[in-house]
């Protein structure tokens, strides 16, 4: 029963997430807000008129938070599984990195700092002459965004 409910929720959440991410959905939302704004004079900008859009947008936002979080959780889990498989499949990769996403932020930062130090030491010894330094890789990624 629970598996069926999970599967149904995943299907519904995925479809809604894809639908709401489309330009046409954004245009529909803008048209609805413009339509609501244009009806203001008809309803003399009453409290009820304002309450309609406030309540509607609050409900939609509240529900979308859960759908978006579900989609992000699934995407992150799938990405971690793929990365774990790559680590497992590559001969020189270190298996201890599998599952580090479950560690605390402090532990992950320590691992990252240790890796950067390791790369720095390799570069000093000339062992990583073909590999870019970690700081260069980070800077290259930062320039992308």
Automatic annotation (TrEMBL):
Coiled-coil regions listed in the entry: none
Region (Disordered): 123-145
Annotated TM spans: 24-43, 49-68
Top-rank taxon, per record: Bacteria
Pfam family, one: Iron_permease
Keywords, comma-separated and alphabetical: Membrane, Transmembrane, Transmembrane helix
GO biological process: transmembrane transport
InterPro entries: Iron_permease_Fet4
Protein name: Low affinity iron permease family protein
């Amino acid at each position: 029963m629970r598996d069926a409910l999970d599967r149904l929720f995943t299907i519904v959440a995925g479809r809604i997430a894809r639908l709401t991410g489309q330009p046409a959905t954004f245009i529909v939302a803008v048209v609805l807000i413009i339509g609501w704004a244009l009806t203001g004079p008809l309803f003399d900008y009453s409290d009820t008129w304002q309450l309609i859009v406030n309540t509607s947008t609050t409900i939609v936002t509240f529900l979308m938070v859960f759908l978006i979080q579900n989609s992000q959780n699934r995407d992150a889990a799938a990405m971690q599984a793929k990365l774990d498989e790559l680590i497992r499949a590559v001969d020189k990769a270190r298996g201890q990195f599998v599952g580090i996403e479950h560690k605390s932020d402090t532990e992950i930062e320590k691992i990252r700092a240790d890796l950067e130090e390791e790369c720095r030491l390799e570069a000093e010894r000339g062992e990583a002459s073909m590999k870019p330094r970690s700081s260069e890789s980070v800077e290259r990624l930062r320039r992308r965004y």
